[in-house]
Automatic annotation (TrEMBL):
GO terms for molecular function: rRNA binding; structural constituent of ribosome. The gene is rpsF. GO terms for cellular component: ribonucleoprotein complex; ribosome. The keyword Ribosomal protein applies. This is Small ribosomal subunit protein bS6. Gene3D superfamilies: 3.30.70.60. Signal peptide: none annotated. Residues 52-84 are annotated as: Disordered. GO terms for biological process: translation.
Length: 84
């Protein structure tokens, strides 16, 4: 990322939508006249993107690792309790 209007922090939003052209035009107009939106980009694709984004995939993998670790820890704890 790089500074825009001397700002170094920002929020990024990715929206994947199917909508009629009139709705897209209205969305672009709202972005253009909203002072909170510094930069926007609308891209048209030939095919809908239906798979999870890389960020969502990474988040899901981290959650699964945490759950696996928690389950292993709970199993180890139960095994230790039964030995006593």
């Amino acid at each position: 990322a790089y500074p825009i209007n001397k700002l170094h922090k920002a929020h990024y939003v990715l929206m994947n939508v199917e909508a009629p052209q009139e709705a897209i035009d209205e969305l672009e107009t709202n972005f253009r006249f909203n002072d909170a939106v510094i930069r926007s980009m609308v891209m048209r694709t030939k095919h809908a993107v239906t798979e999870a984004s890389p960020m969502v995939k990474a988040k899901d993998e981290r959650r699964e690792r945490r759950e696996d670790f928690a389950n292993e820890t709970a199993d180890d704890s139960e095994a230790g309790d039964s030995e006593e």
